[in-house]
Amino acid sequence: MVGEKIARWSRKEDPRSLVPEDLQQLVANETQENLNLEFKSGRLLKKGGMPSLGKTISAFANSDGGILILGIDEDMRKEPPIAGGLSPVTISKESFEQMLLSSVQPWPEGTLIVPVEMGGGSRVFVVEVPSLHYPPVQETSTRAYYYRANFQNMPMSHDMVLRAFGRGLRPSLKPLLGVVGHNEDKDRLRTTFRLMLRNCGQIAATHLAIVVGFELSWIEIDMRDKDGIRLKETISDVPEGRLGSSDERFKETEGKGTSAQQLQVRTEEPTYLGIDHLIGQFYIDIEGQVESVKIILTILCLECPAESFEASVGDTEIQQFQSLEDGAELALKVSAINKFDS
Questions:
Q1: Tell me: the pLDDT tens digits for 284-325?
Q2: Do 186 and 42 belong together in one domain?
Q3: In Å, how far are 15, 25, 34, 59, 126 from 31, measured between CA atoms?
Q4: Which of 203, 239, 258, 271 reaches 20 to 30 Å from 140, CA-CA?
Q5: Cα–Cα distance, 44 to 42 (Å, whole number)
Q6: Would 342 be classed as within a structural domain?
């Protein structure tokens, strides 16, 4: 989905409807740069800063995608840098787009450029760069390839570039994870997830195998009597959880402890994965008070090595689950764990 990261950050259905208040909120909150977010001062354009913008676009495209905001200063006194203040520019969207097009090759298809008008003929540009699985994107002035590491743009090594080009010679499977149901009672929390796969490679993926696991972080409940003595026997410090699915293709495997449970699904017949292919649904039952859940997906097929992905579900997401209406779906952010290691 074009503009997915902007829509998730701004909580707007239309990522093109950003207003100055959305940017001012980033500054007021001292928002940190991260794997998918980078700020650039508007003064950068006066200093010949296009190579810096090209490095960021290359790094985002060759990693997990991200949002580049031109017109917000980086406060470098903190690490990672934070949004330090607004510095809008007067360049037009057309001119800015042409400058970006010349900064990298190939241009990442699906990149969204949103100008936010700040008044007086000035604007801030919000650029969402998708994750481009193939081919890798090069910054033109240095002819180097970059990837994103934490909040920095790092040059890719020769081996990493070779592996990036090799992704086009095999399937590139990316999971899409959404919440489609959430039920809660006094003792148990059940969240149902829909798992889809997208093949971004040039070759069909066959004989799929998917492993779903999870890890729990729990809230330790401190209960005491009127004399201040902790009532250990009345609480359960570690919540229990289990995975399940009504889909017969998901087969449960034995695990050691509550957080090692896994589900597996395999397709015995060759299966071509096109744009979006529904694999199935699974749910997690949790008993006890949980602070967060980390879902770990490992995906492999006959033509490619295993890749692992994770999605973290915390308090914010749980609150969003609880407000879901019937038939609604909430997309979760899924990040590659070992994109350049496989």
A1: 877 766 777 888 888 888 777 788 888 888 777 777 777 777
A2: no
A3: 19, 9, 9, 20, 15
A4: 203
A5: 5
A6: no
Helix axes 93-101, 50-61, angle to 10 degrees: 70
DSSP-derived 3-state class of residue 10: helix
Q: Residues 311, 294: contact at Cβ < 8 Å? A: yes
- Neighbour order of strands in the sheet with 304-313: 250-253, 262-266, 209-218, 290-301, 304-313, 335-336
Contact assessment for residue 193 and residue 282, using Cβ atoms and an 8 Å cutoff:
yes
Domain span at residue 294 reads: 173-336
Instruction: State the DSSP string of 130-197.
Output: ----SSPPEETTTTEEEEEETTEEEEPPHHHHHHHHHGGGS--EEEEEEEEEEEE-SS-EEEEEEEEE
Q: Are residues 288 and 302 in the same domain?
A: yes
Q: Please, what's the b/e burial string for 168-193 (b: 16 or more CB within 10 A of its CB; e: otherwise)?
A: eebbbbbbbbbbebbeeeeeebebbb
- Is 341 domain-assigned? no
Residues 147 and 177 in one domain: no
297 within some domain: yes
User: Are 269 and 189 within 8 A, CB to CB?
Assistant: no
Report pLDDT digits (tens) over 24-41.
Answer: 999 999 999 999 999 999
Q: What is the pLDDT of residues 236-253, one digit of tens each?
A: 445 566 667 766 666 665
CA atoms within 13 A on the CB side of 55: 17
- Residue type at 51 in one-letter notation: P
State whether the Cα torsion 294-4-11-321 is positive or negative.
Answer: negative
Q: Is 82 exposed, middle or buried (0-12, 13-18, 19+ CB in 10 A)?
A: buried
161, part of any domain: yes
In this structure, what is the dihedral angle of CA atoms 225, 230, 231, 235, given to the nearest 10 degrees? 120
Name the amino acid, one letter, at 328. Answer: A
As a dihedral over the C-alpha atoms of residue 127, residue 133, residue 139, residue 145, rounded to 10 degrees, the angle is: 130
Residue 200: which of 130, 105, 119, 95 has the closest Cα? Answer: 130
Question: 104 with 241, same domain?
Answer: no
